[in-house]
What does this fold into?
Amino acid sequence: MGIYKICPYCGAHLDPGEACDCIAARYEMLTPDNRARLGRFALELAAKQRVGTMH
It folds into this structure.
């Protein structure tokens, strides 16, 4: 039995130290408009997190 980890997003079995590319692959499938929308959303979340940790 080998040692491996499981990707929490897609369930792939990965070797130790191996990174899964499922998120990047899904991102590549998005339209340019949806990529921009996702980028704005991520920036908003990061800003909210920074504000939340400052109090």
About this structure: The helical segments are 22-28, 32-54.
